[in-house]
């Protein structure tokens, strides 16, 4: 079920040899207050590091994230930025009431097939119609923002097929998203955290048939005229 899938994704998969601890939501909030923006080593020309460019592979164009490393990705700059720094608090899942209140049997199958990947983020944006931002990755200094991504293989497919079908109820698979805080480049020599909607689960939903359909009412019926 989606509850355990979504709770499982609440931990980033951090590639680090220093065993950096993943903080819980309260610790993350405390860490954010103490964390100052990171300054790049030396001036950087141009504004591409703030917004990146819209030149992304086709498979990324309709998404809020891109896990394909661009040829001009400034990894060397990020490695220098993190050189000698103590472990930096990692981005975190922004919990909401919908996520925290989910319930269900983890052993139940909802028949919503999905694909799960653990990929580093290279470009992100809060929403699909906003500019791309460059996500910070510094693998030589053990800072890699790698996230669990789960996407529906067949959105809108019927689900919970093991149960008898109810004529007035239609089931369908739906992609679910949640917000993550991701560290991105800002301006010429700083960083900041932004919230990004990422795919976290593929879950089964249902909708009821319109009341006209339930009672066999058609659109050809002439409405009663008021006196």
From TrEMBL:
Annotated Pfam families: Spaetzle
Any one GO biological process: innate immune response
Signal peptide: 1-25
Molecular function GO terms recorded: growth factor activity; Toll binding
Gene Ontology CC, one term: extracellular space
Residues of the Spaetzle domain: 112-206
Top-level taxon in the UniProt lineage: Eukaryota
Keyword vocabulary terms for this entry: Disulfide bond, Glycoprotein, Signal
Protein name, UniProt field: Spaetzle domain-containing protein
């Amino acid at each position: 079920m989606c509850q355990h899938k979504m709770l499982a994704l609440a931990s980033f998969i951090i590639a680090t040899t220093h065993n950096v601890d993943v903080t819980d939501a309260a610790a993350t909030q405390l860490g954010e207050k103490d964390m100052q923006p990171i300054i790049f080593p030396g001036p950087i020309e141009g504004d591409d590091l703030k917004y990146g460019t819209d030149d992304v592979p086709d498979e990324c164009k309709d998404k809020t994230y891109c896990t394909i490393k661009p040829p001009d990705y400034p990894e060397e700059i990020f490695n220098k930025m993190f050189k000698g720094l103590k472990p930096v608090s990692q981005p975190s899942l922004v919990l909401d009431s919908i996520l925290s209140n989910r319930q269900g049997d983890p052993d139940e199958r909802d028949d919503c097939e999905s694909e799960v990947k653990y990929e580093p983020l290279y470009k992100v944006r809060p929403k699909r119609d906003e500019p791309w931002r460059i996500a910070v990755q510094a693998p030589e200094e053990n800072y890699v923002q790698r996230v669990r991504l789960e996407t529906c293989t067949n959105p809108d497919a019927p689900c919970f097929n093991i149960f008898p079908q109810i004529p007035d109820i239609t089931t369908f698979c739906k992609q679910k998203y949640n917000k993550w805080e991701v560290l991105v480049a800002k301006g010429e020599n700083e960083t900041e955290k932004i919230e990004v909607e990422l795919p976290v689960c593929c879950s089964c939903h249902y909708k009821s048939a319109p009341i006209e359909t339930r009672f066999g009412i058609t659109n050809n019926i002439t409405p009663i005229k008021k006196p």
